[in-house]
Amino acid sequence: MLVETFEHALKKVDQKCCDEDSSCSNYLRYYNNQPYNKLLKRKLAIETLNDIFKITLIVQFLDHN
Predict the structure, then answer these.
(1) Dist CA 38 CA 24 (whole Å)
(2) Distance CA 51, CA 18 (A)
(3) For residues 53 and 6, what is the distance between their CA atoms, to the nearest angstrom?
(4) Within 10 Å of residue 29's Cβ, how many Cβ atoms?
(5) Number of domains observed in the structure of the chain
(6) Tens digits of residue pLDDT in 10-64
(7) What pTM value is reported for the model?
(8) What residue numbers bound the domain in which 42 lies?
């Protein structure tokens, strides 16, 4: 289930609806994080999710071996 969650998040943030160096209300910008909107970047979210996804797959592999 965790892997599917990261896959879904990655698909969502990988939508090319805004520039990589910014964010939009389709996935990262919400009312509660308005003070951080200038810091939210689609590229960083994609990189972070990819890293988490890879680590999750490695951990799952190690757990099954």
Answers:
(1) 10
(2) 22
(3) 6
(4) 16
(5) 1
(6) 888 888 888 889 888 887 888 999 999 889 999 999 999 999 888 888 888 898 8
(7) 0.75
(8) 2-64
